[in-house]
Amino acid sequence: MISRKILAAIVVIGLVGFALGWGTYSLFNDTETSSGNTFTAGTLDLKVDGGDDPLGAYFMVSNVKPGDSGSKDIVLSNAGTLDGRAYIHFKNVVDDKGTTPEPEPTPDEGELSKNLKIKVLVGTTTIVEDFLFNIKSTSYLLGTIAGGGSLTVTIEWSVPSDVGNVIMGDSVTFDIEFSLQQA
Fold first, then answer.
1. What kind and span of H or E run contains 128?
2. For the segment 26-42, what is each residue's pLDDT rounded down to a tens digit?
3. Are 154 and 71 contacting, i.e. CB atoms less than 8 angstroms apart?
4. How many other CB atoms are there within 10 angstroms of residue 98's CB atom?
5. How many degrees, rounded to 5, is the angle at CA 156 between CA 154 and CA 160?
6. Alpha helices in the chain, H assignment, sequence order
């Protein structure tokens, strides 16, 4: 049996040998540095008919009668660098009964938004087609606009020829809001 002294001497000799070997042991190494790393956030910048300023009214139509119609083309551009989904939203719809001449049924609540048909198109694709009253307060996806790209939106309006006297003297005001969200 090995005595404790011999065992302790073997351990001490092993530790000394390990320490001496460690000092003379080395590895090859090399270091490279990647410098100047940068992140830049992309941008979305919606332009409507080329501008940023608050838009004026696209529609100022008076003397509307059953059977009337019209349209307006609007160009949406993305001056940013990221693709964005474009939306249209008809909001703040307010009917006014205006004058109520004798042939118009009473009570007159201002029914023009319920009888003003709106159709939104992108190219030949119909996005929405319904009466203004029914499409208010809903956002409709127009499509994706690539960074630096554009799309043309056509808004058509019409008053059905069979409306009759219910809209006589009425008016409606509303806002058209366009938005662009990261795709």
1. strand 125-131
2. 788 999 999 999 999 99
3. yes
4. 16
5. 165
6. 4-24, 132-135
